[in-house]
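Workshop exercise sheet. Pairs work together: one partner reads the sequence aloud, the other fills in the structure field after running the prediction. Swap roles for the next sheet.
Pair: D.N. / O.F.
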Amino acid sequence: MKKLHQYLGTLLLMFCLFFLPNNLFAQNTNTVSGKVLDDSGVTVPGANVSIKETGKSTVTNENGEYSFSNVTAGTYTIIATNVGYKTFEKKIAIKEGESLEVNLLLEGESQSLKEVVVTGSSTPRSKLESSVAITTMGAKAIEDRAPSSTAALLQSIPGFVVEASGGEIGNNLFARGIPSAGAYEYVQIQEDGLPVFEDGALQFANADTFYRLDETVSKMEAVRGGSASIFANNAPGGIINFISKTGQNEFKGRAKFTTSDYGMFRTDLNLSGALIQDKLFFNVGGFYRADNGVRNTGFTANKGGQIKGNITYKFDDDDYLRINFKHLDDRNAFYLPIPLKSNNGKIEGIPGFNPNYGTLTSVNLSRLNVPQYGGGTFSADLENGSHPVINSIGAEFKKKISEKVTFKNSFKNTNIDLDYNAIFPNGGPWTQDAYATSVQNTTVSNLTYSYVDNGQKLDPNALIMRADLWHIEKKMNNFANNFSFNFDLDPVKLTAGYYYSNWKSSQYWNWNSYLVGVSDNPRLLNVKDNTTGVDHTWNGVERITWLERDAETKGLLNDIYADAEIKATDNLIFNAGLRYNKDKYSGYRDNARFFAENLGILDNNTADDAVTTVKGNPYTYWRYDVSEWSYTAAANYKFNDKMASYARYSHGFRSPIEESFYDNAADLSKLQNTEVNQIELGYKYASSFFSVNANLFHMGLKNVAFTDILSDGSSENKFADVNNIGLEVETNVRYSIVKLNFTFTVQKPEYDNFTGTNADGSAFNFNGNTARRIPKFFCNLRPEVDITKDLTAYVQFSYYDKKFTNQDNKQVLPAYKEVGAGLNYTYNNLRFAVDASNLFNEIGLTEGDPRQTTSAASDVFMARPILGRAFRFSVAINF
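Structure field:
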């Protein structure tokens, strides 16, 4: 109730801002206002409108309206731009005391190359003049795609293989064929140009765990490869930057309500306006959401919300000071692999387990209470799921020092408490006979299996398995500061900057194994040996605290960078960038006694016989220093206003990840930074009918780390080289009432220098094998039709080629397709929409079980499918 009152109180404050007399300080003389319309007469929200000679700019509200106050009498050029439209310019003249109304008409383009982007560049550049592969989406495009999560939105970007099967959070992104343990290991997710957290691949803290899409988002810019290593740390694969809405003179707001066929209740609100006309602006918004999840857990799977905002003070000459803040308190269920079977290559569910909606995450496994080594009890609550509480505050300052020099500084301080609880499969599924012989070293006739809740005997044909409750507590903080000087030395634009960041991640793990019957909403089992009278479970817990971990990782980054753009001619622009990283990583790790302790608390019970504990053992302290150069060079040639091409070479790196430090803390000599070399050739063309962005790339990676945590608590701890050659293509077609977006990626990621010896002494040679979990081909096709002026329909088709679970390429994950569709209808200031995902309940496998490679039941295996069919309904009002 306390959290609910906090949200209600904040929402009340936001509504109070609505009634604030924002014209209190206004002088409403000499105003220019109007609407931005497309070529079919429909208003265009989110369009950029500026008065060239004054430097004033604004964004149209949800009704396509704009307004400027206090415009000095004179003659000006007013400019309107928006993604997917040609730039519109018009001369206007305004007299003293006049209120001038000017409507602006945008002519549709398939995709505008004149759109200005700021990510991965020292100075804002149009797409046409940028020598990087970049995908952008404005607020309207994001809403039209109706993504169920941040990861779901990123699936639209070519070159990024995104697994969104984990639910709203904790998903994985593989950039340009770089295999990893998952998370966002080679890209950086940013919020207004600074990372949501410095390292996006910390254990059980994937970057999307700390970011939520809502009505405060203005735009998304995603750079692939290219200059990313110059403008972000550990991000040779790319930068994904979410840009927030800011305020303007006119008060405007948007409220949205969303429900679904899986019990969603979600409210979104965003408000913006002026506290002092032309000087002080605000934007504040957020959401509250509760739902049962697409996969049925038996409890409220997702529950929580976010408050986010900024206040901007504008000086003269477009200088500004902006203060921003965010508070996120959200709980999300995380879905892991489930049991499936293959019928002549066709993936099917097993009896009693729905492959589209079933999950091992069950209300029956919610409460864990187990005795601990040294006394006391450990408790965990599965219904907390992945529960981050985030508080961040920051500021951004831009000041033009002279006609040639501009200074900019931004900082952010972030504190995160993460309480993580999820059910991970661990071994099996077993037949009861296989479990008896391979786990308990007896015969099935000697064991009795019964349900914990009612004592009923288990069907002798039913499968059983371990379902672990993995509990992780992480305390995280990050202070990041980036300042730069921009020198306009026509024809050279030079940026020099210094980036500082310090961060810490302290973590504690306590993992316990349940024994369950294999079914939807699995139930706990007890197992007793009839011949000896020994119990092998305690209230369904088969192994008490089989893994305990206590560790910490800290990073201290001191980096300098420079970037230069040289306009050799009107058509030819050169770019060169350089970054030097002087970084220090340090921390400690436990030296746990693994499976070594017998608590001796449970009589005639093996559940407490092999406890792992960190108590009584010393810690290992470690330190790892990084001194690395990253560099890039490119040339972009503009053939005309519709076509350009570029070539780029870049060298970047990725520091060892958290698990590598833990595994090798006693001897860090085997650790090396992952070196990434890229060559890119790009081509861009756009007309009013058709556009294409094509990027041919080659990536060479040395010393890629593979550090998946296995079911026995150990890590792979293997290293290899990877080479990939690929082609990314993004096309857009616009004709009359039809729009078509088509993206595809074709690539060939292969291992090199990947030989060695397994833990059991056997040799392996994976040279030439395809990188795990990376398809060689995947695509997205999205046609849209304006049935009427106000009614639009779309279909979203995605296809992913086959891929492999592991490096040995033995377990194939078959190719699959997914189809979604939707309708949206606009009536005045209301928008109604229905959106459906996975319409045909495809069983598409995004991963196998990277923690387990074998199964005793030969026809049953573990894998994680995409979420089942789901419908969402929404209504939004603009005011």
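Discussion prompt: Residues 4-28, 853-857 have pLDDT under 50 and may be disordered. What would you look at next?
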